[in-house]
Amino acid sequence: MPPPNALLKTLEEPPENTWFFLACEEPARLLTTLRSRCRLHHLAPPSEPYALAWLEREVSLPQESLLTALRLCASAPAAALELLQEPLWTARQQLCQALAATLASGDWLALLPILNHEQAAVRLHWLASLLVDAQKRQQGITLVSNPDVWPLLEQLAHSLPAARLQAIAHDVCTCREQLLNVVGVNRELLLTERLLRWEHYLQPGTVLPVSHL
């Protein structure tokens, strides 16, 4: 019996005097039959100032780094603290450095070594957040997810035309979803194809997909 059906049977016929507490980051992805048998309670993260104060007591890093980690983790302080540890934080810094070098060279395939990793989905999330921040800067918005790399955001915003930036950001999110949901996908081939596509988007005269026009 598949695991969801096994869980459903347990919920339908629970042992006497038993309560189940189920945690789920994305309840919308749960089977409707499971959701219909649960009482949903949303646990909101603490306010950003409160979470930031807690992080400042836990780790000695610049406030911009703490704020970035919080915003990349949807204001969840424990997740932000984990992100700030090695080797995750160093990997993110390396991605930012590699992206800056890519903007200078135009060689998007150079990002493959840093993206082709067991945590590729996490790293694509970081990349997507940088691209979205650059879109914000093109609109004059100052509230961003990555305040610790402001020069990189400005570089992205000035180097990439808005439509091209949007196309790449959309592709990054699509690629991440494929890695998370397609069974047996070849990660290296998928990333290579996407990187070459993004490089092609930036060539003069390239026609973008209809959804980005």
Would you mind describing this structure in some detail?
This protein is mainly alpha-helical and 213 residues long. The chain folds into two domains: 48-83, Helicase, Ruva Protein, domain 3 (Orthogonal Bundle), CATH 1.10.8; 88-203, Zinc Finger, Delta Prime, domain 3, CATH 1.20.272. It is 60% helix and 0% strand. It contains eleven helices and no strands. It has helices spanning 3-12, 32-35, 48-58, 63-72, 77-83, 88-105, 112-115, 120-138, 150-159, 162-181, 187-201. Helix 4 (63-72) crosses helix 5 (77-83). The N and C termini lie far apart (46 Å).
Question: Which structural traits does this protein have?
Answer:
single chain, 213 residues, mainly alpha, Helicase, Ruva Protein, domain 3, Zinc Finger, Delta Prime, domain 3, 2 domains, 11 helices, transferase
Strand content: under 5%
Stretches with pLDDT under 50, minimum 5 residues:
none
- Total helix count? 11
Distance between the termini: 46 Å
CATH architecture of the largest domain: Up-down Bundle
> So what's the overall shape?
globular
Just give the CATH class of the largest domain.
Mainly Alpha
Radius of gyration: 20 Å
What count of domains describes the coordinates?
Answer: 2
Q: What integer is the average pLDDT?
A: 93
Work out the number of β strands: 0
What is the succession of H and E elements? HHHHHHHHHHH
Please identify the structural class as seen in this structure.
Answer: mainly alpha
- By CATH, the topology of the largest domain is Zinc Finger, Delta Prime, domain 3
Give the helix proportion (percent range): 55-70%
The main pleated sheet reads as: none
